[in-house]
Amino acid sequence: MKRPDEHIWSLFRRHLQQTLTYWSVFFSVGLCVAFLGPTILDLRCQTQCTLQQITWVFFSQQFFLLVGSSVGGLFSKTLLSSLSALFTSTLIISLIFTIIPLCHHVILLSIAMGVAGKAMGVIDTIGNLQLVKLYQKDSAVFLQALHFFIGLGALVSPLVVDPFLADDSCVLSANWTANSSSPDLEHLRNTLAGHGAALHNTSQYPLYTDGVVVTRVSYAFWIMAIMNLPVPTAVLALVFHERLVSCSRSSPPLLDKELDSSTSAKDDVQGHGGVFDCCRPEILRGQPATFFVIHALGGAIVFITDGIIGSYAGFVYTYAVSPPLLMGHKTAGCLDSVFWASVTAGRLSFIFLSYKYTAPLLLSICLVGVILVHSLLLIFYTSHVFLFIGTCVLGLCISSVFPSMLAFTEDILDYKGSATTVLVTSASTGEMMLQLLVGSVIQSKGSYSFLLCTTITSCIGFFLFLLLLYTHCVHSNHQPDSSRCVDLKEQPNSGGS
Q1: Parent domain of 285
Q2: N or C terminus of the chain: which is more exposed, having fewer CB within 10 Å?
Q3: Rounded CA gap, 114 and 366, in Å?
């Protein structure tokens, strides 16, 4: 019997090209996720619209990302359809990067961002599904790496964009003079990151909408379009590697019934499809009620944790510059970067931790850590230093919840249901809805309610996780051929050929 690390490396070498391709498409998602916040003011200048109008571009991207996540599973019935959807989606992202500088009206820009959001959602669902199909019970390590590449793309994107951002007003009005004042653009960009509140707060900034546009942000989008082009190329190369298309008449395309055993093994996981695929009669037949409850609990947990990520990233700046902290704009602007850097670092570290420890143990530590950090942030709410420390630790703790929960839920259900699609869709919904909820609460109750909301939701998430562990024990009693109730001490990936 192979040792766990040898087993993991053996699997990785066997599926090297497939795994690297799926990781690369998530780098595309990261590029697309992170550019909108820093460039929103320059895009406002380009479209010559008001701040209230441009913030709806955020909603367009988030809403259609949710739509893409929901329907992405429909393209995963066969390997060919999955790779075709990935190729189309990654190519669309490059095309969107190219045409964004040509969108001179906010409606056109919203449509473009909606198309990009749908492509991102499709990639999110299919990428997770394909890795689960490839590695099944050994998927935890590779899912951690997959989500690390989103963080990597999200770190690279602002670095590409930053040199091309306007340092002053990028729409020069006819009555503009050298003495004309403009708001602190860095402060305004960070405020707009929490777009749930931005719709109510931006009327105080009198920026020009008519005049000469002097923004240079187009170059950043064209650079990212070129950076992203190798990704659809890698997907296309994988299609040929899997012999799913023909280059000549002498070698016809493989039919489903002619697939070799290795290709068939990749598609032997049934039931992955739309978000409601777990409710199909043929899937539910013979399954206990806990089958559906596990889907619901897993979705609820990632709804909360991804919602916390989106809310914290969106509103930590607003919290920091408000009383009682009253942190400087430039210092507070670093908090968001610290948070995303710690999320990325956390996902990198959990790649190694996930094959030494079980997913339930990692989830327990992470969810308890999130509650403790939020509680300490509430206690030391006047400390600038602790806000930075807490932001860093929070990013490390919450970074791996989604991939660990996905691996754990699929393992409980023995890869029979559509847990991946349900969890991906729930995470996208939580990221969108909790930001709107927290933004509304901040407007009505003040900035301190920001930490109170995230603390309460993190406690609810941990309670739901405990309920999931109990449901797992009940579910395992109805499955005579399944594994026993979860053991937090058992090491994962115990080997096997």
Answers
A1: 270-497
A2: C
A3: 33
What digits encode the pLDDT tens for the residues 319-330?
998 888 888 888
Residues 303 and 191 in one domain: no
| Residue found by looking up tokens 């990151």 in the block | 193
pLDDT of residue 228: 94
What pLDDT, on the 0 to 100 scale, is given for residue 44? 85
Indicate the residue among 242, 268, 294 that finishes a domain.
Answer: 268
Which residue carries 């320059």 as its tokens?
Answer: 42
The set of residues, in sequence order, having a beta carbon less than 8 Å from that of 77 and lying 6+ positions away, is 272, 273
| 339 lies in the same domain as 263 | no
SS3 category, 453: helix
Tokens of 352: 């190694």
Contact between 416 and 270 under an 8 Å Cβ cutoff? The reply is yes
Residue 172 DSSP SS3: strand
The total number of structural domains in the chain stands at: 2
The distance in angstroms from the start CA to the end CA of the chain is 7
Beta strand residue intervals within 185-280, DSSP E: 212-213
**pLDDT recorded at residue 243:** 78
Strand partners, 172: 212
Question: Which sign does the torsion angle of CA 327, 330, 334, 337 carry?
Answer: positive
Instruction: Look at residue 262 in the predicted model and tell me its pLDDT.
Output: 41
Give the distance from CA 66 to its chain's centroid.
Answer: 11
Place of tokens 């280059």: 247
Note the pLDDT of residue 286. Answer: 59
Hey, what are 57's tokens? 């571009």
Q: What is the largest CA-CA distance in the chain?
A: 79
Residues 214, 86, single domain; the answer is yes
Pairwise CA distance, residues 329 & 25, whole Å = 34
Query: Do 191 and 281 fall into the same domain?
Result: no
Amino acid symbol at 167: D
Indicate the residue type of 448. Answer: Y
Q: What is the pLDDT of residue 178?
A: 42
Cis peptide before 101 (omega within 30 of 0): no
CB atoms within 10 A of CB 88: 15
> Does one domain contain both 382 and 445?
yes
Helical spans, DSSP H, in 73-136: 79-99, 106-135
- Whose tokens are 């979860």? That residue is 486
Which 3 state secondary structure label does DSSP give 411?
helix
- The whole-number pLDDT of residue 250 equals 43
CATH number at residue 476: 1.20.1250.20
Domain boundary among 239, 268, 297: 268
Residues of the chain falling short of pLDDT 70: 1-4, 168-169, 171-184, 193-213, 245-287, 416-418, 478-497
| Same domain, yes or no: 235 and 353 | no
Judge if 139 and 276 occupy the same domain: no
Separation CA 329–CA 239 (nearest Å): 48
Q: Strand, helix or coil at 83?
A: helix
Tally of CB atoms within 10 A around 45: 23
Query: Looking at the structure, do residues 423 and 484 belong to the same domain, yes or no?
Result: yes
The whole-number pLDDT of residue 52 equals 79
